[in-house]
Every structure is written in structure tokens, then in C-alpha cells.
Amino acid sequence: MFFRTFSSVPRLSRSLATHANLNTRIPAVLHLKTGESFAGSSFGALTSTYGETVFSTSITSYTESMTDPSYRGQILVFTTPLIGNYGVPSNKTPVDSQDVGVYLESEGIQCSAVVVADVAEKFSHHRAVESLASWCKRHNVPGITGVDTRAITRLLRDQGTTLGRLAVGEDAQAPAPMDEEYWDPSEENLVAQVSTKEPYVLNPTGDVKIAVLDFGAKANILRSLVRRNAAVTVLPWDFDFHAVRAQYDGLFLTNGPGDPRHCMDAALNLRKTLEEWDKPVFGICMGHQVIGMAAGLDAYRMTFGNRGHNQPVLALASSGSIKAGRVYVTSQNHQYALKLQDPFPAGWEPFFINCNDSSVEGIKSTADSGKKVWGVQFHPESAGGPLDTIEMFTDFLAECRAHKMQLGLGGQDVMGAAKVEPALAFTNAPQPIAVAA
Ligand SMILES: NC(=O)CC[C@H](N)C(=O)O
């Protein structure tokens, strides 16, 4: 196989030598399945790994990105050259917050490895408790530094997301893996690995009951609901929501890693719910893709996806705080997207498109469909990224509250024949959910 080795950028190598506590004498090599190899130095865990090599253009928020479950199975290349300069905060929720239990986006680092031009071992931030290198080491995640991330990014942009291996220490001396040795995370159902195994409840005294199907939820999605006083029940991704729908005022579908085709059953279940239920439904990223598949749209794999905190999207329709014709700057992390088709399935319309590549960034139910369903490919909850679309959470909960009020006033069960179970007495402890007969 054609094999090229790119050496480190000299300027970066010199700056590396000034950092203490890195494994700077320990070699590391990033191999791409397409035949290129990039030699640098190890930081973080002294272990080798496989993954899907992707790049993110985010300038800050490396801790949030690395703990985002949607990055599961990915070797994350940061295009910003200096990463680690503000260290890593503790991942315990501050005592004044009763919400989600973690400060970052999940309990631990989710990506397989990180690729950084110039990792900073010296860090400075009032919240920082350790360096990026020591955090990676504690979570057994390897990193490589001193490589030309510009060259890697240009390759990935041209040839698309590419399977890779980060070889560390003695492994770095070994030849590049054979094609069949590369691990392809898209073959696996990564959602099943990261979703909660048991239902649990946050903020049980909230005034509106929201069920969350967890495909790999970022903590800030849960925080964004709880901070707007929703009582949030987080359910496993494959939970039979249809059977318990009567207990909730709205349904939320989260982000999640991997190929959305692994979630086709969830989409088919959702289709059943959407046929019989008119309460509000909101989905983000994987959740949006699941809504789209339920609506009859196809999902496809993009060349290199969109990852970064500076993706402009144009609103095509007005809804709540979103105004048609405005451009919102958004946080994104996805490899797949819904196909734009003409006409759209009956009862659905495009909501946003990406200003860079014209990909579908959102869909919604039409005003005359009698439904209140929204899906967005980007991340309104940010963490990291701009807060341009954060009020979509307020919009969603306002719709859930309005719907609940109508029910209260009319005293009618909108599900017709469906039997309404008495609300469960939830606590914060994980507990089984009663399934309506
Ligand atoms: N952040 C997400 O939910 C990503 C969704 C899906 N895994 C994709 O890559 O497109």
C-alpha cells in the first residue's frame, strides 16, 4: 500500500519540549486506513486504539466535546492548534445545582483518542483541577501531539472521515495495520453502549413531565430541561415509550453516537406514537434523525460531517423564538444527516438548512398537521458553543404546558382509547417505570 509519513511541524516540536510531564519521549503515530501516517509524541494514556478519525473546528470547549457521548468511537482531531491551556475542571456538579450530577457532558471521556498540534501541559483556569494529559491518562484515553493537524484536516476534508489507529509506544514502531484490522465504529450500535440502562428521574417536582429517550444524552440537554422546571424521566433508547405515553406531557429525543440506522426500531416505535399522540415532541441530532426516519425521510452518511461550534443555519420557518429568514450560529457534531427530498412527506416541512453545505438542519410538523414536532440537527443546548437557539427548550416546554392546560380545562384524554395511568411517584433514584397495559 502507498505509505507516506508526515513529520511534525518543527515550530510545534520546539514548543513541546518546554512542557513538563508529557510522555514526550514516547512516540505515537496516527495511521489512517487510506495509507497516511503522522508521527508525533504521546500524551495521556500509554495505550493504542482504533476509531473513526474526525475533525472539529471548535476553538474552545475541548472538555465538553470529549465528554459528549456522540463522540464515542472517534479519534478527535482538533483544528485549533493549542489545546489544554485552561486545563480540565472537576466533573462534580457544583453544590448549588441539583440537576444532572456531572459538570461536563457525561461521566467520562467518550472519544477513543485525541489529536492535538500542541498540547498545553501548563494550564490556568480558576476551575481547573488537572491537565488535559493527566485527565486522558486517568480515563485511559491516548493522545498524540506534535503532528500537523492542518495536513490531517485537509486530508479528512478531501477524502472524508477515515478509519484510523493511534499507535503509542512500542506499537508506534510497528507497521501500519492491515485494512481488515481497522475497527469501524459505525458497524456497532454505539447508542446501546452509552444510553442509560435504567430509567431515572431528575427534578421530580417540576410542573411538566417530560420523557427523554436517551440515545447518548449530553448532560446540558437534561440541564436545559431541568432549569426550565421540567420533571425529566430519562428512559433507555429502546424503551417502549408508546406504552407509557399517557403519563407524560411531552417527549424529547437526545443526541447519540454512530449510524442512525441502528435506531430504526426506535423510529418505527415513534411513528406509532406520532400517529396516535398529539403532545409536543422535540429531538436533537440523533433524536432529530430518528424523528426524520419516523416521518419517512432517509438518513445518509456525509463526507466529513459537521463538527464545530460555528455552523450557520438558516431558519426556513418561524416557530416560537425562531424567526424565518434569520441565520443562527450553532454547535454541531454529526456525521449523518436527513436527505432533503421534494416533496417532503405529508405533514412535514424543512425547518433549517446549513448555510455552508445546504444540508437539512431541522424539520418540523406543518401547522395544519395537528402535531407539534420539531427536530434539529444542531445542538441548541450548546456546551460548548453559542446560545443562539437555546430558547428552543423554552419554546418546547411552553408548548407542553399549553397542551397540558388544554387537557386540564377540557378534562379530555387526547389519546382517546388509551388508558391513562396515575402518575408514578418518582424520586431521584433510578427505578422501573410502570408500563400501561
Ligand atoms: N450528535 C449526534 O447526535 C450525532 C448523531 C449521529 N451519530 C451522527 O453522527 O450524525
TrEMBL record:
<dbReference type="GO" id="GO:0006207">
    <property type="term" value="P:'de novo' pyrimidine nucleobase biosynthetic process"/>
</dbReference>
<dbReference type="GO" id="GO:0005524">
    <property type="term" value="F:ATP binding"/>
</dbReference>
<dbReference type="Pfam" id="PF00117">
    <property type="entry name" value="GATase"/>
</dbReference>
<feature type="domain" description="Carbamoyl-phosphate synthase small subunit N-terminal">
    <location>
        <begin position="26"/>
        <end position="167"/>
    </location>
</feature>
<dbReference type="InterPro" id="IPR035686">
    <property type="entry name" value="CPSase_GATase1"/>
</dbReference>
<dbReference type="GO" id="GO:0006541">
    <property type="term" value="P:glutamine metabolic process"/>
</dbReference>
<keyword id="KW-0055">Arginine biosynthesis</keyword>
<comment type="similarity">
    <text>Belongs to the CarA family.</text>
</comment>
<dbReference type="InterPro" id="IPR006274">
    <property type="entry name" value="CarbamoylP_synth_ssu"/>
</dbReference>
<protein>
    <recommendedName>
        <fullName>Carbamoyl phosphate synthase arginine-specific small chain</fullName>
        <ecNumber>6.3.5.5</ecNumber>
    </recommendedName>
</protein>
<comment type="pathway">
    <text>Amino-acid biosynthesis; L-arginine biosynthesis; carbamoyl phosphate from bicarbonate: step 1/1.</text>
</comment>
<dbReference type="GO" id="GO:0005737">
    <property type="term" value="C:cytoplasm"/>
</dbReference>
<dbReference type="InterPro" id="IPR002474">
    <property type="entry name" value="CarbamoylP_synth_ssu_N"/>
</dbReference>
<keyword id="KW-0547">Nucleotide-binding</keyword>
<keyword id="KW-0436">Ligase</keyword>
<keyword id="KW-0067">ATP-binding</keyword>
<dbReference type="InterPro" id="IPR036480">
    <property type="entry name" value="CarbP_synth_ssu_N_sf"/>
</dbReference>
<dbReference type="Pfam" id="PF00988">
    <property type="entry name" value="CPSase_sm_chain"/>
</dbReference>
<keyword id="KW-0315">Glutamine amidotransferase</keyword>
<dbReference type="GO" id="GO:0006526">
    <property type="term" value="P:L-arginine biosynthetic process"/>
</dbReference>
<dbReference type="GO" id="GO:0004088">
    <property type="term" value="F:carbamoyl-phosphate synthase (glutamine-hydrolyzing) activity"/>
</dbReference>
<dbReference type="InterPro" id="IPR050472">
    <property type="entry name" value="Anth_synth/Amidotransfase"/>
</dbReference>
<keyword id="KW-0028">Amino-acid biosynthesis</keyword>
<dbReference type="InterPro" id="IPR029062">
    <property type="entry name" value="Class_I_gatase-like"/>
</dbReference>
<dbReference type="InterPro" id="IPR017926">
    <property type="entry name" value="GATASE"/>
</dbReference>
<comment type="subunit">
    <text>Heterodimer composed of 2 chains; the small (or glutamine) chain promotes the hydrolysis of glutamine to ammonia, which is used by the large (or ammonia) chain to synthesize carbamoyl phosphate.</text>
</comment>
